[in-house]
Amino acid sequence: MPSELSESHVLEFPGGYTRSTGPVIGRFLTELRDGRIVGVRTADQRTLVPPLEYDPHTGDPVTDEFVTVGPAGTVAEWVWVDSPRRNHPLDHPFAWAMIKLDGADTALVHVVDAGHPKAMRPGLRVRPRWRAERIGQITDIECFVPEVTMIVSPVRAEYTIKPGRALTRFLEGVRDGVFLAGHCATCDKVYVPYRISCPECGYLIAEERQVADTGTITTFAINNLPDPRAPQVPFVSAYILLDGADTPMIALVGDVPAHEVRQGMRVRAVWVPEAERTLAMSNVKWFAPTGEPDAELEN
Amino acid sequence: MREVAIVAFAQTEHTDHDTGLTEPELLLPVIEEVRVKSGLRKFGFTCSGSCDYLAGAPFSFVSALDSLGAWPPISESHVEMDGAFALYEAWVRLQHGDIDSALVYGFGKTSTSDLREIMTLQLDPYYLAPLGLDQLSFAGLQASARGADRAELDAIVRRSRADGRTNPYALNLPDPTPEDDGHAAPITDGAAAVVLVAGDLIANYPRPAYITGIAHRIEPHYLGMRNLALSASAADAASAAGVGKGPIDVAELHTQFSHEEPILRDAFGLPAGTVINPSGGPLAANPVMATGLIRIGEAAQRILDGTARRAVAHATSGPCLQHNLVAVLSSEV
Fold it and tell me: Which NCBIfam families match (chain B) (predicted)?
């Protein structure tokens, strides 16, 4: 029977293996230490990056002409690493990429620190992020990073605003527990919230009316994203045609599971206690079903 | 060319874990099996393929000779590559004409270390190894370059695992799932051996698997110097081995990643009727350093047992199919 014995074992060359670079690779690594990337020209004037001693296509020795390339380049192929390994150059997710540096005819294999795979694509322009301490190793380039193509512009301004005459009047009604509407004599239409002119004919509205705090849902939306003005998720916002009004008003619907809300549902405003009311729409907690049979919607 | 034929093949029942056997211990029954199958106890030449980095010890192949009985001294060689490349060396040695038999074997245990990082050590030490580029990552770059259809690759994995389940030597792997997608070959321990004969010795075997063509070609090591979407070296090797000179019943391909199959299928110009990796292939068992030799052995076995008349075997070495060997096996010269 095989033994169950086991032991850990390490194969390591203490201090690392010493390798001579030769003149071509040595030149590349020396330039890299100085913060430059060079390629070498082949006899047929192609530029190999990183430089090799022999042209891989012909086997002929390369020329002794070195040319500076990059430092920017274009990603050809890439693959994303979600969980970096111990030996990987970055400790957070990154991409391996084949990068064709500007002026090179071959691609360099290196790392792109792009933050997210959606930031990667063939054709992405990248530039090296150099290490401060360089020693003449391919890792003197810590990684490549995408070129700047976007900035974030903060926008913020502060204001003091007033609701205007019509809305102020409507909110006074809400403070007192009623919905105020405007009746246009020309069009014979009742607008809620209250307004001082008719949007159809443009005439001033002379008559102020109270409408009921009951109404019918004409359409609605179920919202699955949290909103500071809504008590729960999902919440329902609905168009409610108040009894006596000709235009619907938008409001929350509550005290009912979201999936039970429907067009034609009869609802009534749920007011906060009188002592808590202010000049604000928050006086209406939401609209709740009345339990009446559904209403027929005209349109 | 001198005719050379495969007359015996054996492999271990591969495992996905370390069973506690050393590499020579894994090898011993396999060597004995091909000796019995071939009826030969001694060979004109012996050649093996293995990797010291897998064993974690220098000259680890030397101890494998213990499983042969190498006394009095035998004529022996080794490649630090898959056993398929040892087979090539043996084929070349048989071309010399002074010997008529060769034993070839390969072995590897990938369970004892981290294969992905062991494969980093095979990369060029100046430009790639210092980055810590691992096997899955460079395979991913090639898959990206190929841009293969995911559904096609999933189907390759499903087929390979299903075939592997019917192969008593391969791993018993379930259908792939999102958590176990199987696009990379499994970690596997195992070994394999093949016997080659030439000259008058061939007449002793009623149904040898003739090697009618064998060739290998290599591309630049550095990934950025090649078009990873294709395999020019595999195409060249296939052409040199004469793959296109006749119908191909079976192709055993050394595909350690699913996306390598369409690349090789294109490179070889395999017709739609060719059965690919009926053994399950490397996606069903990947005893590194024996996997390529097993491709040749599996293809040869189908000639030996009469289920195929002409078969192609492929083995590879280096990152992203850098180096490719192709052998054509046939029931006829």
Answer: PRK07937.1
Given an 8 Å threshold on Cβ–Cβ distance, is B225 in contact with A48?
yes
Give mean pLDDT, residues B58-62.
84
How many angstroms separate the CA of residue B56 from the nearest CA in chain A?
A: 6
CATH superfamily name and code, B150-182+210-330: Thiolase/Chalcone synthase (3.40.47.10)
ipTM for the complex shown: 0.78
**Which pLDDT value is given to residue A100?**
97
With contacts defined as CB-CB under 8 Å, which chain B residues touch A21?
Answer: 126
Global confidence as pTM: 0.77
Domains B4-113+187-209 and B150-182+210-330 share a fold: yes
Q: Locate the domains of chain B by residue range.
A: 4-113+187-209, 150-182+210-330
Tokens read off for B27:
């090898």
Which pLDDT band holds residue A299 (cuts at 50, 70, 90)? low
pLDDT at A27 over 90: yes
CA angle B116–B120–B125, rounded 5-degree value: 175
CA-to-CA distance for B213 and B211, rounded, in angstroms? 6
The nearest alpha carbon in chain B to A76 belongs to B145
Q: Is residue A1 predicted with pLDDT exceeding 60? A: no
The pLDDT of residue A163: 85
Which of B124, B126, B179, B219 should be substituted to probe chain A, the one whose Cβ sees the most A Cβ atoms within 10 Å? B126
CB neighbour list of residue B192: distance below 8 Å, 6 or more residues apart: B9, B10, B11, B12, B30, B83, B105, B106, B107, B287, B290, B293, B294, B297
Q: Flag if B131 and A111 touch (Cβ within 8 Å).
A: yes
Q: Identify the H or E element spanning A66.
A: strand A66-68
Interval B93-150: pLDDT, tens = 999 999 999 999 999 999 999 999 999 999 999 999 999 999 999 999 999 999 989 9
CA distance A196 to A191: 10
Which residues from B are below 8 Å from A11, CB to CB?
53, 56-57
Please give the Cα distance from B326 to B234 (Å, whole number): 7
On the 0-12 / 13-18 / 19+ scale of CB atoms within 10 A, A9 is exposed
Interchain contact, A109 vs B224, CB within 8 Å? yes
Q: Say if the Cβ atoms of A11 and B57 lie within 8 Å.
A: yes
* Long-range contacts formed by B260-263: CB under 8 A, 24+ apart: B260/B142, B260/B316, B260/B321, B261/B156, B262/B146, B262/B148, B262/B152, B263/B142, B263/B146, B263/B229, B263/B230, B263/B231, B263/B234, B263/B321
Whether residues B134 and A137 touch (CB distance < 8 A) is answered with: no
